[in-house]
Structure formats: structure tokens, C-alpha cells
């Protein structure tokens, strides 16, 4: 006889407390995130460490730092992308500038995905209803999800601060930087908690939260690029800048994200009590009784499920391409205080022309972001399977291979759309600034599309994991993280070429400006096709779910 049977009043009292079982759920979800969470922490920490290391290595005097910072602060496009340099005399000030805004955005994405994964996604799959049948309070899942995100953001902030201190940066500035990232994580954990109550699907909840993030980033960008600097007070990412790490630290600003977190979480808890389990506050619109002819195949279904994601990523890539195109022509002026920096940009970009080297480096970075989209898109196959939506589809005339190939086709088309948007944006702006629109537009578009084979290798590796080890499909993020670390840190640390060759991005021609040899691209495409075929074959032979 169980303890619950012996003492039913105690069980009822626990459920009425609202938080019963939160500790148990926290342990379970931390275990589920044992791959995802360290990947985020290691990746972002590596970004911080490589940035600090490179700046300490390249700039050996305050004069060189100040010259570099002047070039940045005089360029509106660069300020919009990264924000202004608040302390131009120290490596800490430039490090906080370089990874402050973009890193804050990545921390926000991490917290959004964690909270939605453990709240709305759990309701969507029906697992939370089963959990709620035990001694688990109504507020316990949301509490455990928030604690998971807070743990991830806090660990990341602490590790980032320790890394900066290890490299000799001031303790106060390093701690302020870590807390600024932690504050952004708190705010967007609260945002995700709220959108998880509003939306009735995890896809919509993620979309709403990431839409808030995009708005916050754009508000911060407008404030930094123009003269209305007060606008940054309206953005949580602007708050992180206002902490002024490694400058004259403003500790009181950290109260803003804390207050926002409390208000957002209070609103989320209030909405939790007002809605039915599995439903959202925003009423779902009912579709037609019969599907349109265009929705009667697996390819159309896959596109319908992912079109919002593809369009959202494409818009972000378009904006980033416009910013890169605006900066590229003046990159030589930005680094005129250090020949060593120009040499490193040439080393990473692979050309002697500094603008081409910068653009080639930017193309490589965009390829990594495109690979992140590809991994997310392939993970959709596992999500459909684990949620039980795959079996009804396969009960029709649709076979396994046809369904999986349709999803992969959308992944491939999405990667093409993202890099096309990037190449067109860079080509238009850079061509207009240099007076060579007719020449730069096809040149930059070709450089962007040359990144596709490497991206497809990452997508194929994730497909192979899905076919062979479906429970480990999320390890596709780990594959991408390894490639990220090799691409960003490898050239600075002069890692052996054999190690660098592990990443498919190492074999991509350094375009624009490099040797546009077709053989590496053909070889990478063939490798991706073979790996994807192996994944499809494994998927055909294993049990569903």
C-alpha cells in the first residue's frame, strides 16, 4: 500500500499548496537538459574567452584600443549591431562591447527555449496531464521550468565572469558583465513563462517570446545608432548595456531586470489559475473542416508546420546582412590601430583584401547560424514522433521515407532561403556603398550560397542521429557546438589542421575573394547525401516512438 493511499488528506493538502512536486520536476528537467544546457554554457563561454584572449593578444596599448573604439563609435551600422564602446581604454571595455548585446540575445534565446520546453510543450504532448495526476501542484511545472532557466542563466553568468577574471580583467567589471547576462536571462524567462500561458502551442509560445526579443534588440539598435539614446531604457538588452561592465559599473540598473522578472512571473502565475490545462488564454482559431488541395501531401504539411520559423529566420538574416553590408566597406578604418587585428581578420577570412576577408568571416558566421536553423528543423521530425502525431500520418498512404524526405526538403529549402537573404542584403548594401552594385550583388550571393554544403552536412548528421538514436537527436546541437568552437577559437589558438578538418566549414572556400573551387563543395554535398541516406535507412528499420 502506498503512502498516498494511507494518507489521502496529506496528498490533497500538498496539491492545494500549488508548489508540491516542484523539486522533483526540477531534478527531472535538469537531467533532461544535461546536453542542451552545457552546450549553451560552453558555447557562449568559449565566445567570451576567445574574445578576451584575442583582444589581449592584439592590442598592447591604450592608444591602440582607443583608436579601434573610435572607429566603432563613429560608425552607426556597427553601433546598431553591437552597441557603443563605453570604455575605450581597456580590454575589458572592448570585450564587454563585443559580446554584450549579441551574447545577451543568445542568453535570452536559451531561457525562452528552456521555459517553453518544460511548460507549454509538456502540456502539448500530454505529459503534464499525467504528471498532474500525481501529487503535483498547479504551479509546480511553471516553478520548476523557471528554476531551470534561472539555473542555466546563473551558471552561464558565473562561468563567464570567472573566465574574464582568469584572463586578468577587473573583478568588479567581470561580475557586472556576468550579472548583466543573468538579468537578461531572468527577463526572458519571465517573458516565456507569460507566452506559455497565452499560446496553446509551443511553436506559438516560442514565436511570441522571440518576437519580444527581436523587438527589444531592434529598439536597442535604434537607440545606439541614432541620437535617441533614451530608447535603450525600453529594452532589456539596453539595460544590460546600462550596467556598464568594465566601465563605471551601475549596479542599481540590475534592479530593473529583477523587477521585470517578478512582474512577469506574477502575471504568468495569475494566468495559470485562469485557464484549463492544455489550453491557452488566446483562443485557437478553428481551421476549415477539409484541407485545401495544397495541403494533402507530406511536403505541404511540413511547410505549413515550419513556414513561420523559416520566415522569421529569413527576416533576421536579412537585417543582419544589411548591417554587415553597411560595415564592410569601412572595416579597414575600424582596425587601423592594429596591424595584428587586420592580419587575424585576413587569416580567418582567407584573403589579403581586408573587406573581402571580413565578409568571408561574416559569411562563415552566418553559415553557423544557418546550421542552427537546420538542426532545429530536423529536430521537428523527432518532435512529431515523440508527440504521437507521426503515427496518424503513417496510418495513411504516406510512407516513412516519403514523410522524412518531405521534412528534409523543407530544411534544405529553408537553408537556401536564409543564405539567399543574407547574400542579397550584403550585396545590395555593399554594392551601393562601393558603387559596384552589378558586380557585388552576384559575388556576395555566390559567397553566401557556397556555405550550403557545410550546413547540409550538419543537418544530415542530425538526421543520422534521428534514425539511429532517436532519443539522442538533440545531440545535433553538440555537433554544431564543436564546429562553432573550432571555427571561432581554432584560428586564434593555431590548432592543428587535422583538428580543424573535423568541421565541414573548414573545407568551404573562403568567399568572397578566395578560390571558388567546386570540388570541395561537390564533396561536401556528396558526404551530406550519404549521411542523410544512412539516417533515412536507419529510420525505416527502427520502431516508431
Automatic annotation (TrEMBL):
Source organism superkingdom: Bacteria
Transmembrane regions listed in the UniProt entry: 35-55, 96-116, 144-169, 175-196, 208-231, 251-271, 310-328, 357-379, 404-428, 448-469, 476-499, 519-539
UniProt keyword Magnesium, yes or no: no
UniProtKB keywords: Membrane, Transmembrane, Transmembrane helix
Protein name in the entry: ABC transporter permease
Species this protein is from: Actinomadura darangshiensis
Taxonomy of the source species: Bacteria, Bacillati, Actinomycetota, Actinomycetes, Streptosporangiales
